[in-house]
């Protein structure tokens, strides 16, 4: 057997080992998972601590017990490199499932496996999981990335937007965006869907020259929907009647009639179908 044939055979063996290891994770079979590792397998996982051992069946069983039903565990772009009795494999990994408390999780992360050839075949000696974090000073883990995304992460950043920008967590952000187009003449600048292809993790609108951001609730990530209260979005416009009538015709509910307020401007409040309160403000025109 040539060196190339030997290397190809080793790659095939390793891919089979990793495939069975992944299936054991999907089935939450701790013994089967651990059977693919060395006794001193070193693990740098997403969860604390910084360094751990994969030989702890109890810890693995405990983690499996937090999930309801089988796990979703998919490896993409798997690449295996072999040299003698040592090999490395890299992949983009998608983990998904439902916790017993009803929370759902779905994220991509980076996986590197170090393997060694033993008298019992190829075994995983090192496991390294990681996610990038946003370089905006927040140190927030970037668990919303998708390898199929067409976003150019190396593109120059957009210039900063002035002022304070409202970011609304609304039920059915897609429907809310469509309503704001009809009611307030909103222009959609950008949107990004979640992995389910239905919910929006981001929607950028421009209304009356200002920015408004929307997203759907994501209770599985600690962002459930809550009834909006305690704030009003003000639109300072040049023609109160025009803005008011358009919003009412679109379906906004009048909660404070449009009239001349004590300070001298036209002012009124509306509630949209998503529970958000809007104020329409405009100077009183001469003769009006």
UniProtKB/TrEMBL annotation:
Name of one Pfam family that matches: Glyoxalase
InterPro entries found in the cross-reference section: Glyas_Bleomycin-R_OHBP_Dase, Glyas_Fos-R_dOase_dom, NTF2-like_dom_sf, SnoaL-like, VOC_core
Protein name: VOC domain-containing protein
Ranges where the VOC domain occurs: 161-283
Classification via PROSITE patterns: VOC (PS51819)
């Amino acid at each position: 057997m040539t060196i190339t044939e030997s290397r190809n055979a080793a790659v095939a063996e390793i891919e089979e080992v990793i495939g069975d290891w992944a299936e054991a994770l999907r089935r939450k079979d701790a013994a089967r998972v651990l059977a693919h590792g060395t006794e001193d397998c070193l693990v740098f996982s997403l969860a604390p601590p910084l360094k751990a051992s994969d030989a702890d069946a109890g810890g693995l069983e405990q983690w499996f017990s937090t999930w309801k039903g089988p796990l979703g565990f998919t490896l993409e772009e798997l690449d295996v490199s072999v040299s003698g009795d040592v090999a490395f494999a890299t992949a983009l990994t998608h983990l998904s499932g439902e916790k017993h408390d009803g929370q759902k999780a779905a994220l991509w992360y980076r996986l590197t496996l170090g393997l060694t050839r033993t008298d019992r075949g190829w075994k995983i000696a090192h496991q390294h999981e990681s996610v990038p974090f946003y370089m905006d000073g927040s140190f927030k883990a970037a668990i919303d990335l998708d390898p199929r995304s067409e976003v150019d992460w190396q593109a120059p950043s957009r210039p900063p937007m002035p002022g304070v920008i409202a970011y609304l967590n609304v039920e059915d952000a897609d429907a809310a965006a469509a309503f704001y187009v009809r009611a307030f003449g909103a222009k959609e600048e950008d949107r990004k869907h979640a992995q389910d292809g239905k919910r929006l993790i981001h929607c950028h609108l421009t209304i009356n020259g200002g920015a408004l951001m929307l997203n759907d609730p994501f209770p599985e990530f600690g962002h459930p929907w809550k009834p909006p209260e305690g704030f009003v979005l003000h639109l300072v416009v040049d023609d109160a009647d025009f803005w008011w009538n358009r919003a009412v015709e679109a379906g906004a509910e009048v909660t404070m009639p449009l009239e001349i307020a004590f300070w001298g401007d036209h002012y009124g409040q509306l509630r949209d179908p998503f529970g958000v309160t809007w104020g329409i403000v405009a100077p009183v025109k001469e003769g009006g």
